[in-house]
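Supplementary notes for students who missed Thursday's class. We covered one full example, reproduced here. Read the sequence, then the structure, then the short commentary at the end.
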Amino acid sequence: MKRMSPLDAAWLMVESEDTPMHVGSLMIFQLPENAPEGYLQDLVARMKSVRDMAPPWDYKLLRPGRLGRMLAPFWKEDPHLDLDYHVRHSALPSPGGERELGVLISRLHSHPLDFKRPLWECHIIEGLENNRFALYAKMHHSLIDGISGMRLMQRILSHDPDETHMQPPWVVRPKPRSASGDPASRPASVSGIFQEALEAVREQVGSAPELTRAFGRLARAGWTEHSDLMPPFEAPSSILNKRITPQRRFATQQYSLERLRNLAHKADASLNDIVLWLCGTSLRRFLNEENALPDEPLTSGIPVNIRPADDEGTGTAISFMIASLATDEADPVERLEAIKASTRAAKAHLQSLPRSTLTQYTMLLMSPYITQLLSGLGGRTRPVFNVTISNVPGPNEPLYYNGAQMEAMYPVSLVAHGSALNITCLSYAGSLNFGFTGCRDTLPSMQRLAVYTGEALEELDTILNPG
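Structure (token representation):
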């Protein structure tokens, strides 16, 4: 058995019919030249034939019932995993364009996972126009976060276009780290749990002064007019922060990474600042058209990776920053300056904390949000922040799977009551790929948001490169 960390267990606790807590990845591949007619059928058959499962693919809940998940958050290995259930082969209706793919991914991502089985599915999708196919995989957030998910899928790919007979994702094991102090990696035992509890108490006592100072700074920012540091619950209520239903919408956009970096250089901004500006500008336009733009600026919760570079494990290893999207600012240049000031303040605040306190800080920062979801208050009270926007670094070079070149990789994320929209970006081989995940009913016509980021990019290019 393997004991979960408190943050991983929290994703299980907030799971509900309306808020399935799984995340996914959509990869689009170009079929190899001269691929035989049965290429994909053979690929799926080979995938299903390999049963040497690596963690976390073989993990299932020790007690899958809701009460059992809350009281005893342990994983156990499933030696009888049914790959015919977990691995699916689908086909798009003609003409097999981006619209048809988006409709299918929206439907697949809306379905909850079966908690009596290991919490993942993998779908091979044929029929995509221009001789392409797609691979969509989803896994529960208690098993994986954005960084670990990207690294997990990247391990199955190759830089060699001629490499064949490659292994499916659930076979490839992470490289062992030289040392690990992660309590969740220890075998589950009475003595192990007792030792973990003692260490948790020591960490909390030792980190209390730093945490007190950190939340003191957030409190003072809430009391101070025009502070660049955005505390939780300073977000205005908006249509993004209502109750949601189980059905999802998914949309994508892909932009040149070099173009975005050049704009960031011209604006003396970071790449993340440009991403936030594109999203904030798109949201301002979208909400204006819906006559629903708040007078106060929308805020973004920004996941921050705290996983060591050599850590190829799974589970959740993130903290959070909160930054303004300056949607109250009509002038695009002033909007960008406000975003830059806000992210600088948020980074300085997070960097002031010792690494040893980041997990406790994250749990305390997110506890009101988790409490809202558990108590049924999510979407009924003032939000902690308005929208989650994250930027996950991916591979820089083109990658292949059994001779098929990966053209794009899009994150497919989760939404919850009070947070009906998630925007996650992933860099890959010179492009930045945006995945927009939203509630179908709370945010109708969500695809407009994706289109508007492209038009916002053209606007920013014109502003920063006049003539």
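Commentary. The chain has two domains: 2-154, 192-464. Residues 52 and 171 are 6 Å apart (CA to CA). If anything here is unclear, bring it to office hours.
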